Amino acid sequence: MEIYSSLDQITINEDTVVTIGNFDGVHLGHQSLIKKAVDVQEKRGLKSLLLTFENHPSDFLKGKHVRLLTVKAEKLRLIEDMGIKIFVSLPFDEKISGLEPEKFVNNILVEKLRAKAVVVGYDFRFGKNRAGDIHKLERLSKDYGYSIDVIEPILRNGQKISSSLIRRMLSEGNVREAGIMLGREYDVSGTIIHGRKFGRQIGFPTINIQADESALIPKTGVYYTKVLLDGREYCGATNVGYNPTIDGSRLSVETHIIGFCGDVYGRTARIIFLDRLRNEIKFNSIEELKVQLQNDVQNIKKLFTCKFQYGTIQSGN
């Protein structure tokens, strides 16, 4: 997949089918746009191109920092796997947001991206003050020589699947519903870092990951998880929270990998959230905490087939 991050870099020598959007999460709604673009690519011999933005538009327009469902590397992987050939991610800034709708079509879609077909969602808006919509895009297509496909929303329980709805589900701890709308389980990846090693002292060693600072972390609580590490899959109990029984000072994502052994500091782990087990609790004693952790592990063992490697873990808490 060709990757471009500025208009000046772009050199495209073939006519394209362009799909446009933020694509945060690459959820089922986004996937319907991508599938249509790839379908047009195959039927008309055009090269598929996905146009997105380096920063979330709300960051620029509203001064509001939006936590991401997919960091850039993961977004690239998902989009490439679906068959897109060209990935263009532009900074959403004054230059882009200030373009009049027809200028956006002429300067970017037609001249830079060589669009002969455009695939967008039914609520697509573009241009200065979001003045352009699908009707404007369709009218301009007659002058600029591209076809347009408008994709209807994908619904879940009567609601349109959207990145904002999935963020809300995650903020409520509903990782199962978020996963259904994403078309895959929600996950957070990061480098394994040193913790306080408290978990090891009480018989429940954990790995702590340092996630990308832009990534959205689900609501605090204890989750059933799968852990991908060094190409293998394990069963885990993940605590997202502040460890109130110990000190309650900072948010962490720490996972007890059932039956795991190994020194894994500095490696990358992927934590896949399957379901939420319970709220984070402040216990009156360490013994109460240990009993609850034992119950958590037993509950997870009943629900999932875990891959065990017996021994003592040597990293994390």
UniProtKB/TrEMBL annotation:
Domain Riboflavin kinase span(s) in chain numbering: 181-305
Reactions catalysed: riboflavin + ATP = FMN + ADP + H(+); FMN + ATP + H(+) = FAD + diphosphate
EC number: 2.7.1.26, 2.7.7.2
Lineage top rank: taxon: Bacteria
Pathway the protein takes part in: Cofactor biosynthesis; FMN biosynthesis; FMN from riboflavin (ATP route): step 1/1; Cofactor biosynthesis; FAD biosynthesis; FAD from FMN: step 1/1
InterPro entries: FAD_synthase (IPR015864), Riboflavin_kinase (IPR023468), Riboflavin_kinase_bac (IPR002606), Riboflavin_kinase_bac/euk (IPR015865), Riboflavin_kinase_dom_sf (IPR023465), Rossmann-like_a/b/a_fold (IPR014729)
Protein's GO biological process: FAD biosynthetic process; FMN biosynthetic process; riboflavin biosynthetic process
SMART domains associated with the record: Flavokinase
Keywords of this entry: ATP-binding, FAD, Flavoprotein, FMN, Kinase, Multifunctional enzyme, Nucleotide-binding, Nucleotidyltransferase, Transferase
NCBIfam families assigned: PRK05627.1-3 (NF004160), PRK05627.1-5 (NF004162), ribF (TIGR00083)
Family: Belongs to the ribF family.
Name of the protein: Riboflavin biosynthesis protein
Species this protein is from: Peptoclostridium acidaminophilum DSM 3953
